[in-house]
Amino acid sequence: MTPPSYAEVDAGVRRAIAAYTQALDDGRTDDVVATFCADATVEIPGMGTHEGLDAIRAAYAQWTPRRPQRHLVLNTLVTDWTADEARATSDVIFLLKGREGWAVQVVGRYDDVLHHDPDTGRWRFHARRATFLD
Fold first, then answer.
1. Which of 32, 40, 58, 108 sits at a 20 to 30 Å CA gap from 52?
2. Are 36 and 56 in contact (CB under 8 A)?
3. pLDDT at position 110, please?
4. CB 20, CB 33: distance < 8 Å
5. Is 56 exposed, middle or buried (0-12, 13-18, 19+ CB in 10 A)?
6. At a CB cut-off of 8 Å and minimum separation 6, what does 10 contact?
7. CB 39 within 8 A of CB 125
8. Residue 62, burial from CB neighbour count under 10 angstroms (0-12, 13-18, 19+)
9. Predicted pLDDT of residue 134
10. What is the pLDDT of residue 57?
11. Is the pTM for the entire model greater than 0.85?
12. What averages of pLDDT result for each successive group of 10 residues across the chain (134 residues)?
């Protein structure tokens, strides 16, 4: 089997990030959880570290949006990859709509490790760590 090209890995990683982000902002917890591997870990400042799909599902169920929100994920750079694993870093800006309109709530960065699922052809998060700027 021919190893995937950088372009193929990059496209798959970006699809995983977009699927996660849109599901998160729409409050679709099951779709968020579907972007993670069974043994995944997610670490978000102020929200804790969650390991495994049950813990991840419970955490994201508590974070269902109550107001319109958008996570703008940009400057994604796949820094290392094989046919089975990829590492990526992305900048994130979190916007929340309030009474006065949209406002920036958080600026930060995601550091991700994703694994390729050969059964579905999709990339899934194995580890997602967020850091926020003060």
1. 108
2. yes
3. 98
4. no
5. buried
6. 78
7. no
8. exposed
9. 79
10. 98
11. yes
12. 91 98 98 98 96 98 95 97 97 97 97 96 97 92
Q: Under a CB-based contact definition with an 8 Å cutoff, are residues 84 and 116 in contact?
A: yes
Counting Cβ atoms within 10 Å, is residue 1 exposed (0-12), middle (13-18) or buried (19+)? exposed
Phi and psi at 98, nearest 5°, equal -120, -165
Give the whole-angstrom CA distance, residue 97 versus residue 124: 29
3-state secondary structure (DSSP) of residue 81: strand
- Please state, in angstroms and rounded to a whole number, the distance separating the CA atoms of residues 97 and 50: 27
In the chain, the amino acid numbered 40 is A
C-alpha span between 10 and 77 (Å, rounded): 8
For residue 16 the two structure tokens come to: 């995983």
